[in-house]
Queue: 3 jobs
Job 1
Amino acid sequence: MTPSLAARRPFGGLARRPFGGLARRPFGRLARCLGTALLALAAAACGTSDEEVLQIGCPDVRILRDAAEVTHFRPGGGTDLTDVVSRARLADISGSCEVGDDGTLVTFLVDLIAERGPALRGDQDTYRYFVALIGPGRTPLAKEVFETTVTFPPNEPIAGSEEELEQWLPLPGEVNPADHQVLLGFQLARGQLDFNRDLVGAAGGRAAR
């Protein structure tokens, strides 16, 4: 079966599927233990045995650094501060996985935080982000792109949304879910990706001084 990426659901309205005797394991607490969503590494630091990780390990859920932020510039303008429509970033993943004999259900929350720019006209901007499933050997298995619109309250520079998603991995019992990755990031054009990398490079240069 092909792994499926479930459509984003409004926060608070998630329809749980009846899976019977699934073993549910949170990865949000373990993620905070090391600042990542890598259960296999976090489990050792938080006191979980290697044997247990092999039996019930959650997939590695993470935000790609180069795609963690996006800057929207006004059409036809430059890339100066006055041309910025808005900026947004993905942050603070938490959630859980439910492991059964025929697969694993990963449910996770990620915060999308947006900042109003001087070139914004109106009170809304729309952002596109992806969720991708990567198998062993970094093999791409599935990818889906979602859109979310953020509304800025009057006279407020910051707004955001909490995105709740499900990922169903139809994995047989002998396959360890921890050998898979669920990757998130903004769907970026080439110029936006280069802009992000230039910012990271500039920040690294300042830190090295």
Job 2
Amino acid sequence: MLYVADTSIAGGDKPREIEVGEFSFSSHTQEGRIYCVIEFKEETERRSHKSWVWDPLSQHYRQDEDRECSFSILIESDDAKFADIWLWRSYMSDPAGIAEDMFAFPKADGTLSPALDDGGPCWESVYYEGFVGQKLPRFKLQKASGSYADVSATAIWKDGKWRVTLSRPLSTGNKDDIVFRQGTEYRISMARGLPGKIPEPAFKFRMGKIQGDDAGAIPLPSAKSHSVGEK
């Protein structure tokens, strides 16, 4: 299902939320940046991921079953030949204050092979040879760098719901990022984790008027009243 959002109205309007699958989405621009606010339900914060747990029988660490919470937002260019992918993760990226910036070239059938943007990631895998503790983190968090770290993130979990705000300059100057331009149409979709195929449903929006560094809001009408059928 594809939804259309007419965002040609410029300046001052309060961004309206659009419901896309299990996600609630709204967006606006300010001082040369685009902001995307995403909300979705999650019973717990899930602030650990694939922890190491000591196995006394084998005398080594094994991977636990804990999993972090994560979602991706995919922003496709107007010609559908390039996708900017922002992957937010409650354990791996949120403490660093970013979403992992990635990209892909969608194939004709919609399949994706995401790759990291240039730069240094915000985590690295670690292993422990001998007993250090009963349960230990598998990943060491570190400072990210380069185009990989373009997307800032702030997140709050409360009452069984995540509210995540992602922001990025309208133009980063990096070849692995989409440039948000006035009057240009983009296709957005969201999914849990990192998908191997472009998710459905999705919606389109067109950037409204941008005035220098003080950009107008991007209003998003209700998706239900803008359904245009199967994609």
Job 3
Amino acid sequence: MLPSAPSGSPRATPSRSCGPCPSDAAAARADALFNHLTPRTIRTTSKEAELAKLFTNTWRYMKFAVANQFFMIADQAGIDYTNVLNAIRTDYPRAADLPGPGFAAGPCLFKDTMQLAAFTSDHFPLGQAAMQVNEGLPAYIVAALERRYGGLAGKTVGILGMAFKAESDDRRASLSYKLRKLLAWAGARVICTDPYVADERLTTLDCVLEESEILILGAPHKAYRGLQIGRKDVVDVWGALGQGIAL
């Protein structure tokens, strides 16, 4: 059974549950259970439910990849993607669901895209491309900074937010950690902070703001909005700090 969010539901992340219903009696019991969560359920086979879940997460992951690829194209052309994205979305409902750029990570989207690629016998080029784009965004940022400064050796770079998404303490598969590793490989001193993540390697926000020469927004936590950053170089591919999308 698949609980289905009603059309126009304000729920941002509707629940999905997969499981076989081999009989009408099992379907009725599942329906009674899930009716506590949603007014409508959809009966499927176990394989249909699994594919529905994989397709849903992979579709979402590919949308993020399109957003990140568009951002990279605009950046390479020297064009302000903030204005481009605003022009795309404004008064054009067909493009209203185009996400902004940012790290697409966590324990589900990337993993389910890989699952689908492994399941498909004749390969899955769209999924493979999405993984390359999304997983490649940290390296793209590091390469851009290396070009700007002629290398990062000796630079102190601060990362704001180490969770894989905003307002969360979940760091599983977070691209902020990949970014930290790539910056360190490039010779930078990297200091990181997050108001939610428990990690003894992290430091305080005040320390990061005071000691960093370059700041990178890793997770767009609300706590970082309105920060007094001064004249530091700031990388904000999310566009969450109020100054637009910046690299």
